[in-house]
Amino acid sequence: MLLRLESTLPRSDRDSILLLCKELGYTTRFLGGRQELLELSGPGAPDHRSRLADLAGVVRVLDVGAARELHERATGSGDTRPDTIVRIGDAVIGGGNVSIIAGPCAVEDEGRLAEIANAVRRAGATALRGGAFKPRSSPYSFQGLGAEGLAILGRVKALTGLGVVTEVLDPRDVEAVGEVADAFQIGARSMTNFALLREVGRTRIPVLLKRGFAATVRELLLAAEYVLSGGNEQVVLCERGVRGFDSVTRNLLDVGAVAHLKGATHLPVIVDPSHAAGRADLVRPLARAGIAAGADGLLIEVHPAPGEVHSDGAQAVGLDAFARIVADVRALCAIDGRTLVTSQLSESPANGGFQ
Amino acid sequence: MLLRLESTLPRSDRDSILLLCKELGYTTRFLGGRQELLELSGPGAPDHRSRLADLAGVVRVLDVGAARELHERATGSGDTRPDTIVRIGDAVIGGGNVSIIAGPCAVEDEGRLAEIANAVRRAGATALRGGAFKPRSSPYSFQGLGAEGLAILGRVKALTGLGVVTEVLDPRDVEAVGEVADAFQIGARSMTNFALLREVGRTRIPVLLKRGFAATVRELLLAAEYVLSGGNEQVVLCERGVRGFDSVTRNLLDVGAVAHLKGATHLPVIVDPSHAAGRADLVRPLARAGIAAGADGLLIEVHPAPGEVHSDGAQAVGLDAFARIVADVRALCAIDGRTLVTSQLSESPANGGFQ
Amino acid sequence: MLLRLESTLPRSDRDSILLLCKELGYTTRFLGGRQELLELSGPGAPDHRSRLADLAGVVRVLDVGAARELHERATGSGDTRPDTIVRIGDAVIGGGNVSIIAGPCAVEDEGRLAEIANAVRRAGATALRGGAFKPRSSPYSFQGLGAEGLAILGRVKALTGLGVVTEVLDPRDVEAVGEVADAFQIGARSMTNFALLREVGRTRIPVLLKRGFAATVRELLLAAEYVLSGGNEQVVLCERGVRGFDSVTRNLLDVGAVAHLKGATHLPVIVDPSHAAGRADLVRPLARAGIAAGADGLLIEVHPAPGEVHSDGAQAVGLDAFARIVADVRALCAIDGRTLVTSQLSESPANGGFQ
Amino acid sequence: MLLRLESTLPRSDRDSILLLCKELGYTTRFLGGRQELLELSGPGAPDHRSRLADLAGVVRVLDVGAARELHERATGSGDTRPDTIVRIGDAVIGGGNVSIIAGPCAVEDEGRLAEIANAVRRAGATALRGGAFKPRSSPYSFQGLGAEGLAILGRVKALTGLGVVTEVLDPRDVEAVGEVADAFQIGARSMTNFALLREVGRTRIPVLLKRGFAATVRELLLAAEYVLSGGNEQVVLCERGVRGFDSVTRNLLDVGAVAHLKGATHLPVIVDPSHAAGRADLVRPLARAGIAAGADGLLIEVHPAPGEVHSDGAQAVGLDAFARIVADVRALCAIDGRTLVTSQLSESPANGGFQ
């Protein structure tokens, strides 16, 4: 490990830093004559980088060395940690496996949800998304069906065999949501809800963690670290667009972050083109761009009857458009030797070529 | 109220919209021949704007009319609602009253906190800030003293008579924090923690609500609406800088939002120049700019011995710098006939001129 | 055409608007009773949208109708204009043709440039990029070889047969640069240099127009309109990343803008993954994402000996990495039935499958 | 001077760096044993920082030392350069002098312009703004009266005695504009038009340089350096808002940048609240915030008859509002012992107190 200290650090502060390093199990030596570069040798632990960076007098941790955080791909010995593979029902995400999670925005009607679930499964989705608890900017907007929505999700899951991804908003709801969910969704607006992150970190249910809409990649990885450090290793990161200055898309899909994350962490990364675009007609190109940049999966809003969606801002795609996206993803996976994982019950060819 | 509907709306959707309008107590008529502009007449209620805007087929609510939300300044009859005045201990915020809340970032040592509290009170602060629960990007960073920090805050409050503003992060902590706090702080990273907003909305303790670092002004006002709609009318909005692209300041203080808010809402608005600047040397000019733009108060990080703060990024100002800021604020208030409210125990002249 | 007027417009202003409409050849009528929606019927011309939108009292042009701007895909009659196809030497861009333009950042040494040119041609590039005039933030940084750089470009073009894309910065240089260039590059920092845009619009040499790093898509299209309205129809738009808040990439590649542009304009759109990433290791995934989102080509910085590039910020890829990008692009084109155009002298299979 | 070199730099590159240092007149030595920190001793020159930072193998210039750039406030010897004071007609900007430049957006009618000029002079402005050449996003929008507009400006200047600030867009127009202008305005969209910056740097006419709407402070200072290095020392920087994500203001006025600039450079800094706000009702609070943050002046759009401005987006203030802004600025100056400079012909009390 290598720390840069302030150049004008009083002796007492320098001594405090050296003392903590010793307590953490390191031997230390200054490089050069200016007492600015401090080299630490020792076994390291995931919490050391943050603890040392927080110290008064430490300008920066230049080299993390062995003190690898839990999300990091590179190990202290220079090796690379293998990809984490997360399973959500039949969906397999990471390690060369690509899966598509699809469904409506909110759970409203059981019959309608079952219809969508069966349709997206046949088209190639391996997990069902749908919100029972909805985060809404306005207190007066529909907040989801809550417990009744969870019950519907449970029955549709039993009916269709699809794993369920659903959002949890409140740490007090983690237990109830966990009885139905095959993966907790942590929405973009909850990425810095640290109490909630700790609570889902105590479970052993996969967590789909969305990037906040102005969060840096480092902040996203540290949010994941809250879950990982609780002992829950099943974390999927999700890029869903950051807030930009142009209204032609609702958000700005950061494919560079996806590509960077594939090198920086062993955790799988998926893309939500629906929230990024905010427009049904751009979901397909953004889905393609995400997979081409290296994403391990997609989270897509699907509506069975796009003709019934009237709002200009509607971002849900219909079943035909969804099928075209699945075909594109299969073809893109083939370029890299990756596999689009589909349910055994899917009508699509499981590993077939692109038509 | 005036709604714009989609131009190609099927009859069944149009009928659904008309039905909800009727249920909400409105009589309706279309303006012009195109069935796009729908005029609603009726008493209105705070939730109608969001509920109508959410309807499929409604493009936009063009004119809110009588359906004023709780934060809005203008009433349906064209009158203006008087300013809300919020009291936090001796601090009075809003309605021409300006107050300064000051203190350290985190509560750490009781003696040190009492020393700072007395010093800032003497210099002109009327409330004490200090975090017992700290939101931290990294799970390995110091998260605050928690319950022990609350106990310290309680004892320092008894000792100094200063009202206490402290952050609450978890809805399960609202009761415990509320036993000490004269105002709950909702941090920028919790602005979209709707479960937490609802919980503090059930209390009758003032809420200092910080703008998320990429939240629009409308989103901030709707977050306030979560608290107001719970029956808690004591909300202070706080602008603390948005995320920008230039690293010379940590955040970009949005004085235009402050000025806009003063016209849009009757709620008081304060500015946090410390988090906006991220640099001690820029706190004073940003504090001045905030007050000059119309802010009703300041939230400032103060450290008793700036010489002990070594980090380049340190944003806490020393007591001398704080005293200069107080003098500036007093002079700026005089320009507008506003009053800088100070504690009776303050050594500063209560309403004196600028020296 | 459909205009929204201000609701409280005095009669004299309304009359002025009606008069201009008549002068432009329209007959007008108000829709509904409120004199807010003004419908115009007539042949239309490309300049009408801007001229009417600029009028005092006009809130918005709601529907452009027949007054199509030159870049627009949709015609007034509801038809779609066919794709513009731009040729730069052997490169063919647009209408299902994909081409790759590659080369060094700046022209420095003739032998080295010829070597790169031959290498990228063999690998699959069909045009050579290289700057003789370099826009630099600092007046003290190397500003390019200028006229000598143009001469080198001319000789390497003669030697290799590759078309040349090179930047022009000053309207007074357009003639000199045009003697060598097969396409003018207008850099991101010149997108709002309207005098320069007009000057290249007077030539009949293709223009590669880069999006400014905080320009909206509408502003990019209007910059193109400056060139098109001068009579030069050979414009290629280039997305190269917008300025974001996270430093893991230098810029934020806006693939949503690429996808939107493919629907909004008949002009071809390419992507510059090198400037977007600012890091050699992310050029390949961003190149793939751009093509997958629908881009008609790539502009890539290539360096023959990546081992000689030491800076952490270096964004040039080596020849091996470039060859992998070309193979990826060929495979991606095959998914859509698009063609990667390569030089006859290329050693790559012209329309072969992906290996 | 202190450079950080790459840790894995080959000997040949290190030798090249050392050679250039020697040619620039420095003696060098490595600090510590890792050959990463290179200390340079010598006289220094303004171009050295950029030239050394550009070298392959140089990670960063850690300490500029004596190689001060022309805009920098601190000198190599640790002293501070005195404020540059720029005069534009009667306006005096910098060194504790505050001036207000006011006028219409574009020059259209001579009588109307003379009327505005007289009115703003009486109210306290000391220079007149008005565009003869207008940068417009659309080629079809009104581009200004050009030469005829310059002639009008010249006659109004003769009539009123006010100095004239007017925009130049094209390097070929610098001579003609310079015959009328007391200061060239370089607009936000021209901040990276380096050919234009060099051209105005060859004159000895003051330059009012606006920050690009997504330019960093460093980029703004380097744009100023283009003018300064041409020998023109009369540069005024202007903050006019950066592009943000919220539409309640057109741009986001960056008062933190103003405060930072006052410490970083000896050049005067003014604020344009009109373009930042994009709304007449917010011009006054933003003007106040700018002056309170330390700005040396204001650039304000004034319209004589605000009742005639109908557009929602109108940002021009009327004469009454302008007079209130002038009174505010005078009072704010008094707080700091600064002087609001007014014309001898002004009807306002030249150095009077605030009423």
What's this, in brief?
The structure is a homotetramer of 355-residue chains. The first copy, chain A, has eleven helices and 15 strands.
Features:
homotetramer, 355 residues, alpha/beta, TIM Barrel, 2 domains, 9-stranded parallel beta sheet, 32% helix, disordered C terminus
Describe the structure.
Four copies of one chain form a homotetramer. The C terminus of chain A is likely disordered. Chain A folds into two domains: about 60 residues; about 260 residues, TIM Barrel, CATH 3.20.20.70. Chain A is of the alpha/beta class and about 350 residues long. Chain A contains eleven helices and 15 strands. Chain A is about 30% helix and about 20% strand. The longest helix of chain A is centred in the last third of the chain and has 18 residues. In chain A, helix 3 crosses helix 4, helix 6 crosses helix 7 and helix 10 runs parallel beside helix 11. In chain A, the strands form three sheets. In chain A, strands 7, 8, 9, 10, 11, 12, 13, 14 and 15 form a nine-stranded parallel beta sheet that branches. In chain A, strands 2-3-1-4 form a four-stranded antiparallel beta sheet. In chain A, strands 5-6 form a two-stranded antiparallel sheet. The radius of gyration of chain A is 22 Å and the shape is elongated.
User: How many helices of chain A in DSSP terms?
Assistant: 11
CATH architecture tag of the largest domain in chain A: Alpha-Beta Barrel
**Terminal-residue CA separation of chain A:** 52 Å
The share of residues in extended strands of chain A comes to 15-25%
Global mean pLDDT of chain A: 91
Low-pLDDT stretches of chain A are 309-313, 348-355
The biggest sheet of chain A, with number of strands, parallel, antiparallel or mixed sense and barrel status, is: 9 strands, parallel
The number of distinct structural domains of chain A comes to 2
Counted beta strands of chain A: 15
The fourth-level CATH homologous superfamily of the largest domain in chain A is: Aldolase class I
At the fold tier of CATH, the topology name of the largest domain in chain A is: TIM Barrel
Rg from Cα of chain A: 22 Å
Query: What would the principal axes of the Cα set say about the shape of chain A?
Result: elongated
Q: Tell me the greatest interface.
A: A-B, 51 and 51 residues
Pattern of helices and strands of chain A: EHEEHEEEEHEHEHEHEHEHEHHEHE
> Multimeric state of these chains?
homotetramer
**Secondary-structure class of chain A:** alpha/beta
